[in-house]
Q: What sequence folds into this?
């Protein structure tokens, strides 16, 4: 099962054949520059070939260490922020049990998995320390720079906790660092303390790193088959690179979102109808916003869990300013069939649903919502994902990274840097009086 599909055919009258034809040469030139690593920011295009050109020795080491982690702890904590953690989290939530951490131990073959280092909250960290009390712990700290404040603070506190609990040498066997190959504070610390380390490749930025050790180690700990994720990504890479224009789904997604943007839509909302997509949406949001929001350009991205958010922001989508379009992420094949059964008294008046699966009802909710939003002038795009499995996941990651990079190039920005993120850091470090940042 796999085979992601992109469909924009619902938007009759909004996207004309000429719109697609007019931009074709520009799109194909941007694609050529991207796949040949000749585009702006080309020093960060290592992810383009990663699915067919990854370090197999490190990949095997990831599997071996993932097994060690699974066998040696009750709680596994992944520390990181932004692109350093969202990929892993999105995979684990997409493939795993919705209530994984709450399942009784005998029903779980893997440790509980927690995420940290993506805020500076005392409450969050205090509660995390309470939640892991008495448990055996392993940690994966993920930071390319090794200096990101949120993850560095969290790591220092958890490292001290581990060293107190286990002693320095046993703690070192339980700490796994994913960082730059040669430089940075984390690399230095890991070498000094003897932590097992994994590499964030030089030519891959955080938000394009899910298929490197950044995503693969935590995902492997969760029990997922990382070979199959790479197979799915390699399959999608082939489709992205080989197919030309209108038959190329990632190219079309990048093209259509730029066309819609040119028609004065400034916000793309990514909606899903399955909670397992929630963190895929979070990953997507960061990927596209951090890549495209530059030089006062770019679509603003927002994510929604439907039908939940139809009872929250649905009113705004239906009747608010006409500034957005919607992309729906749909799961084609949904397992765990639940069927509505006949009730003799039918007080709730639900017998008209007799024999229908929840997935059937959910998909009708999706179609009905799409029709309502189209009627209200909200263009709708559909991305259907084959199934809740590793191959589909690998396809999805590659599809979005390729489409995002291409979309940014069409827009005329560098999709691989993030200069704007430095501003809050400069201001924060000035206030914290960090040496080198204090205003003189
Ligand atoms: O996508 C990105 O590049 C960022 O979101 C980074 O991943 C994030 O800022 C964390 O950086 P680092 O891995 O250096 O701690």
A:
């Amino acid at each position: 099962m796999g085979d992601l599909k992109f469909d924009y055919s619902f938007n009759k009258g909004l996207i004309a054949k000429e719109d697609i034809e007019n931009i074709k040469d520009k799109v194909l030139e941007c694609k050529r520059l991207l796949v040949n690593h000749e585009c702006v920011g080309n020093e960060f295009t290592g992810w383009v070939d990663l699915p067919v050109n990854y370090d197999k020795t490190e990949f095997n080491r990831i599997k071996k260490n993932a097994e060690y982690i699974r066998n040696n702890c009750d709680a596994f904590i992944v520390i990181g922020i932004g692109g350093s953690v969202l990929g892993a989290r999105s995979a684990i939530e997409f493939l795993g049990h919705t209530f994984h951490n709450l399942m009784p131990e005998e029903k779980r073959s893997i440790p509980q998995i927690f995420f940290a280092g993506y805020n500076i909250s005392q409450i969050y960290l205090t509660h995390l320390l309470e939640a892991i009390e008495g448990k055996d712990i392993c940690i994966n700290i993920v930071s390319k720079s090794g200096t990101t404040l949120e993850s560095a603070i969290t790591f220092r506190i958890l490292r001290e906790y581990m060293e107190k609990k286990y002693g320095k040498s046993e703690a070192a066997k339980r700490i796994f660092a994913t960082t730059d190959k040669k430089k940075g504070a984390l690399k230095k610390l890991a070498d000094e303390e003897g932590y097992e380390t994994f590499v964030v490749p030089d030519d891959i930025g955080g938000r394009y790193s899910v298929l490197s050790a950044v995503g693969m180690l935590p995902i492997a700990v969760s029990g997922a088959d990382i070979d199959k994720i790479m197979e799915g990504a390699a399959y999608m890479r082939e489709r992205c690179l080989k197919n030309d224009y209108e038959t190329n789904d990632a190219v079309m997604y990048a093209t259509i979102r730029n066309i819609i943007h040119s028609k004065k839509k400034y916000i793309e909302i990514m909606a899903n109808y399955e909670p397992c997509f929630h963190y895929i949406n979070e990953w997507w949001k960061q990927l596209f916003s951090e890549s495209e929001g530059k030089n006062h350009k770019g679509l603003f991205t927002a994510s929604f869990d439907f039908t939940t958010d139809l009872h929250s922001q649905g009113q705004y989508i239906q009747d608010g300013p006409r500034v957005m379009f919607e992309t729906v992420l749909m799961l084609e094949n949904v397992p765990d069939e639940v069927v509505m059964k006949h009730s003799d008294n039918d007080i709730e008046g639900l017998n008209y649903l007799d024999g229908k699966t929840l997935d059937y009802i959910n998909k009708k909710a999706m179609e009905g919502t799409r029709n309502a939003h189209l009627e209200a002038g909200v263009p709708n795009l559909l991305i259907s994902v084959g199934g809740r499995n590793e191959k589909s996941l690998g396809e999805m990651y590659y599809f979005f990274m390729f489409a995002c990079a291409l979309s940014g190039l069409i827009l005329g920005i560098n999709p691989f840097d993030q200069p704007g993120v430095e501003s809050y850091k400069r201001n924060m470090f000035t206030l914290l009086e960090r040496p080198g940042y204090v205003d003189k």
The chain has a mean pLDDT of 96.
